[in-house]
Every structure is written in structure tokens, then in C-alpha cells.
């Protein structure tokens, strides 16, 4: 048995939606569950949720816990430099004997982590690999014998890779997220106005291959789901009131979604849900919205991406603006809020910005989310455009800064981009259910006025052009 410290890095960026949501580190909770089953002593440190001095917090945690091994999560591209910095710190300052990293960005672009301070890189799903990795470390078995790894070769300085690991065949058998390992931070996890938040995964992967997305790359074009019975069993174990389903398309398997809904109703589970779904699925199966609304569906995140069908075709979305509109009105009919996401291309003209804003106004979308088209490593878009990138500093890959040349002057682009948020949220009208939710949670002590003020300040920040030209507070190693 070893003591394993799993670390979620803090995000030092000054721009973005950092103050609008803080989601539990499900990747670390997943491998934490596997390590606990293998009789290790595991602790998770979430540096995003520890206040103003995460470095001091980590120092104290290391001194108290005295880990035998350290694991870092790096799922998001802007976190790369912070993970590299922390890996060097634990090696050089604390004499860490074994350091490993995993996560989404790590898996699709592991060359970024080819440094001597990182002993092993987990590629892809980590639940099985991490157990075999630490068993090998304890038994002094060479890393070359473990599937699904990359590692630094001390002789050549090159990165070596082992045989690819197959995907987990039956994810229903994967352990529940080890949520008790984040007990110290759970009250700080939230999604917008929704506090008392927990995440659940019911499936992995996506059958679609959008150019801007790397999910299909990570999961090798597969879609695997957990059984309805397994999903409901895990839901019963969750204490929080609000559930974020992390599946990229919860309604991908319509029959399964209906069965889960029936079992949730039968079990009398009373929670509120946010899900992600495709608009074409909603249009083809509006009965899903009706069914899930009755058992707590509160919000749907739909990737509208564009108001222009030609653009949707170009990015291989396999969907249409008409479908997006129809899905929006189906949700509205059943009083289910829609968070509609749109991609703003660096090639946008003023007319394009105006066209997008007019679409949002016409549909009266109360919660639109706008992001700048960013060729993230691991995507088809990155492979096509990497030679045209004007910024290679990952600190700017936060979906709020263009890393390609803009058609408009940069200052003008930021003015138009921030105005999308300013105009959209200027007359934000919460639904009656949302207002009641806020009042109820403040009275119950589950939400503070400080939280609401924090959200308001965040929205003001991303609605201000000068925010985007401020120096990013980042650490580069």
C-alpha cells in the first residue's frame, strides 16, 4: 500500500468563465476509486477550491500526508504550464520519487509533458492503467511493460510510448467516483446559480466527429454506456441536490435515456439535472424532454455553434440551424432552460457579430455562451491550422482569446466579442423557477449573496473589452 496524492491544478487565468462554474475533478475521483480498491491510501487536493494561496496549501498537504507518489490531472490546455511547474516543484523541493500525469490534454498531446520530472504519462482512460502503473512501480517492473503509457527516456531525452491500452469494455463495472475524497471542497462546487452540485457520468464518447472537438479522438470514435441500473444506483449515493450529467450527449441512446428516467421516477429520486444533448435528437424525440422535465430536468446545454448552416457543415457538426431553433422551442415549451453555445470565428466581420446577436435576440435565448474558435491540440482543426497559429502560448487557449489572425483589428474584435455578452445578459430574466431556487437556497444556507455577487462580477468582466487585453496571470515553466 502506498500513499498517493492526486492534485487538481488551480487555473491562474484572469479571463474566462472561471467564476461561473467550478466542477468537481471527476477524473481524479475516478482513478481515486480504482486506487482505493487496490488498497492504497489516497488523498485529492483541489487547488482551485482552497483560497488565495494554493501553493502554501499544497505545501502543507505534502508535509502532512507525506506521499509516496504524486498524480496530476491536466484535462485543459491552459493548465499545461501549471502542471509542469508543480511537477518540478514536488520533484525538486520535496524529492518526490514518482510523479505521473493524466487527463484529456495529456492523452491527446502527451509530448508537452516530456520532462525528466514526470516519470509516467497515462494515455487515455486511467482507471486500469493507474493501478497497473503503481503496482509496477512498487515491484520495480520497467514502465515499458505497462500498456497505455508514455515516459521520458533518461538516456536520449526522447519520449517513449508503450503499447496502446484497449478501452474499458464494460464501464458499468468502473467504481463510482470517489466523491468522499473531495469532501473538503464539495460545498464550493457549483454551476452558475446552481450550488450543491455533483457530477455523474453515464456514458463515454461521442459518435460524431466535429472538427473543433477532441472527444472522439480521446475515445477513439466509440460510444459506451453504463447500464440504467448502475446509473440509478450511483444517483442514489449522491447527497447533492443538483446533478450535472457529464456525458457529451446524454440522449445519444434514446431507449436507455427513457429507461433511466423510468427508474429514477420509480426510485423517487428528487434532484435537478443539467444535461448536454444534440438538438436533432431533441427534435426527433421531444418526449424525452417531457419525461425528464417531470423528474427534474432543469437545464440543457446545446451546442448550437453557428447560426449559419454552411459553417455547421464546414465543421462537420452534422446538424442545422433549423434543428437548433426547433429544439430550443421544445425545451421552452416544457419550461426547461437552454444554455446555447456559439463559436465565434476569428474571421468574423461586424456583420457576422450582428447576425449572431440578432439570432440570440430573436429566440430570446437567456443563457447564451460565446467562445472563440480555438484549434485545441488533439482536434482535426489543430492539425489543419497549426501552421497558421499566431499564438502558441497555451495560456491563451482559454476559448476567449483568438490564436489565429482576426479579420477585424484585435481591439475591435474584443469589443464586438464582449458586446455579445454585454447585450445578451443586460436584460437577463431568470425564469420563475430559477428565482425561487435562488431564494430557497439562500434561506437554506446553501447559497450566499456573495456567490451571486461573484457571478455578477464575472459576467461584468467578460462583458468588458479591456478584460481581454489585460496580461494573463500565468506561470510558464
From TrEMBL:
<dbReference type="InterPro" id="IPR006638">
    <property type="entry name" value="Elp3/MiaA/NifB-like_rSAM"/>
</dbReference>
<dbReference type="GO" id="GO:0003824">
    <property type="term" value="F:catalytic activity"/>
</dbReference>
<feature type="domain" description="B12-binding">
    <location>
        <begin position="11"/>
        <end position="144"/>
    </location>
</feature>
<dbReference type="InterPro" id="IPR007197">
    <property type="entry name" value="rSAM"/>
</dbReference>
<keyword id="KW-0479">Metal-binding</keyword>
<feature type="domain" description="Radical SAM core">
    <location>
        <begin position="192"/>
        <end position="427"/>
    </location>
</feature>
<dbReference type="GO" id="GO:0031419">
    <property type="term" value="F:cobalamin binding"/>
</dbReference>
<keyword id="KW-0411">Iron-sulfur</keyword>
<dbReference type="InterPro" id="IPR023404">
    <property type="entry name" value="rSAM_horseshoe"/>
</dbReference>
<dbReference type="GO" id="GO:0051539">
    <property type="term" value="F:4 iron, 4 sulfur cluster binding"/>
</dbReference>
<dbReference type="GO" id="GO:0005829">
    <property type="term" value="C:cytosol"/>
</dbReference>
<keyword id="KW-0489">Methyltransferase</keyword>
<dbReference type="InterPro" id="IPR036724">
    <property type="entry name" value="Cobalamin-bd_sf"/>
</dbReference>
<dbReference type="InterPro" id="IPR058240">
    <property type="entry name" value="rSAM_sf"/>
</dbReference>
<keyword id="KW-0949">S-adenosyl-L-methionine</keyword>
<dbReference type="Pfam" id="PF04055">
    <property type="entry name" value="Radical_SAM"/>
</dbReference>
<dbReference type="InterPro" id="IPR006158">
    <property type="entry name" value="Cobalamin-bd"/>
</dbReference>
<keyword id="KW-0408">Iron</keyword>
<dbReference type="Pfam" id="PF02310">
    <property type="entry name" value="B12-binding"/>
</dbReference>
<dbReference type="InterPro" id="IPR034466">
    <property type="entry name" value="Methyltransferase_Class_B"/>
</dbReference>
<protein>
    <submittedName>
        <fullName>Radical SAM protein</fullName>
    </submittedName>
</protein>
<dbReference type="InterPro" id="IPR051198">
    <property type="entry name" value="BchE-like"/>
</dbReference>
<keyword id="KW-0808">Transferase</keyword>
<dbReference type="GO" id="GO:0046872">
    <property type="term" value="F:metal ion binding"/>
</dbReference>
Amino acid at each position: 500500500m502506498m500513499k498517493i496524492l492526486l492534485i487538481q491544478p488551480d487555473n491562474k487565468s484572469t479571463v474566462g468563465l472561471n467564476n461561473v462554474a467550478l466542477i468537481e475533478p471527476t477524473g481524479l475521483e475516478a482513478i481515486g476509486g480504482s486506487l482505493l480498491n487496490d488498497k492504497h491510501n489516497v488523498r485529492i487536493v483541489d487547488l482551485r477550491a482552497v483560497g488565495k494561496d494554493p501553493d502554501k496549501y499544497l505545501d502543507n498537504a505534502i508535509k502532512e500526508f507525506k506521499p509516496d507518489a504524486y498524480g496530476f490531472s491536466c484535462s485543459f490546455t491552459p493548465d499545461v504550464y501549471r502542471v509542469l511547474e508543480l511537477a518540478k516543484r514536488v520533484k525538486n523541493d520535496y524529492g518526490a520519487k514518482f510523479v505521473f500525469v493524466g487527463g484529456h490534454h495529456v492523452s491527446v498531446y502527451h509530448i508537452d509533458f516530456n520532462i525528466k520530472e514526470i516519470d509516467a504519462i497515462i494515455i487515455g482512460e486511467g482507471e486500469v492503467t493507474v493501478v497497473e502503473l503503481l503496482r509496477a512501480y512498487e515491484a520495480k517492473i520497467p514502465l515499458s511493460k505497462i500498456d497505455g503509457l508514455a515516459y521520458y527516456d533518461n538516456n536520449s531525452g526522447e519520449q517513449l510510448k508503450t503499447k496502446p491500452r484497449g478501452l474499458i469494455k464494460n464501464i458499468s463495472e468502473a467504481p463510482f467516483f470517489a466523491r468522499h475524497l473531495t469532501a473538503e471542497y464539495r460545498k464550493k462546487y457549483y454551476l452558475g446559480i446552481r450550488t450543491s452540485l455533483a457530477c455523474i457520468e453515464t456514458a463515454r464518447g461521442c459518435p460524431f466527429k466535429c472538427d473543433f472537438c477532441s472527444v472522439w479522438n480521446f475515445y477513439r470514435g466509440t460510444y459506451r454506456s453504463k447500464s440504467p441500473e448502475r446509473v440509478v444506483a450511483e444517483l442514489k449515493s449522491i447527497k447533492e441536490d443538483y446533478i450535472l450529467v457529464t456525458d457529451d450527449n446524454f440522449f445519444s441512446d434514446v431507449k436507455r435515456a427513457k429507461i433511466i428516467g423510468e427508474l429514477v421516477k420509480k426510485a423517487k429520486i428528487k434532484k435537478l439535472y443539467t444535461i448536454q444533448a444534440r438538438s436533432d435528437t431533441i427534435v426527433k424525440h421531444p418526449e424525452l424532454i417531457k419525461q425528464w422535465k417531470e423528474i427534474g430536468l432543469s437545464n440543457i446545454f446545446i451546442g448550437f455553434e453557428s447560426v449559419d448552416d454552411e459553417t455547421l457543415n464546414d465543421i462537420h457538426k452534422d446538424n442545422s440551424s433549423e434543428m437548433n431553433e426547433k429544439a430550443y422551442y421544445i425545451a421552452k415549451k416544457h419550461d426547461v432552460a437552454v444554455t446555447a453555445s456559439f463559436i465565434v470565428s476569428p474571421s468574423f466581420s461586424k456583420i457576422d457579430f450582428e447576425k449572431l446577436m440578432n439570432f440570440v435576440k430573436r429566440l430570446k435565448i437567456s443563457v447564451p455562451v460565446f467562445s472563440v474558435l480555438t484549434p485545441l491540440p488533439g482536434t482535426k482543426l489543430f492539425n489543419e491550422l497549426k501552421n497558421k497559429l499566431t499564438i502558441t502560448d497555451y495560456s491563451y487557449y482559454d476559448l476567449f482569446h483568438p490564436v489565429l489572425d482576426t479579420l477585424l483589428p484585435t481591439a475591435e474584435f474584443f469589443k464586438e466579442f464582449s458586446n455579445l455578452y454585454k447585450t445578451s445578459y443586460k436584460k437577463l430574466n431568470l425564469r420563475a423557477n430559477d428565482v425561487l431556487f435562488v431564494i430557497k437556497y439562500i434561506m437554506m444556507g446553501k447559497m450566499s449573496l456573495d456567490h451571486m455577487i461573484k457571478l455578477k462580477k464575472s459576467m461584468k468582466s467578460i462583458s468588458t473589452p479591456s478584460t481581454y487585453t489585460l496580461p494573463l496571470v500565468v506561470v510558464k515553466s
